[in-house]
Amino acid sequence: MPENKGFQEGAMRWIDRIPMLWLAGIAVYLAGAPFVPEPHLVEKWRMLLQGSLSKPIDIFDLLLHTVPMVVLAIRLWRDAQRRRDKR
To answer: Residue 65 class from Cβ within 10 Å (0-12 exposed, 13-18 middle, 19+ buried)?
Structure first.
């Protein structure tokens, strides 16, 4: 298990090095793109909830548009933890 912890810390340090402005911009842009007629993220999540998300391209699209938001959430959580630990 110790090697797993090292991998996790390395991945977290990688996330910490991404500039927050870039990370937020990419996450917001990909969450909304394409903006017309409907964001892919909304469409793919609806397909997932309806059980019709089955094509590989649709699954890839879901991951492509969701992963930056997940990374941003992890970064914000880690920043909040660090601020809390400094108190």
So the answer is: buried
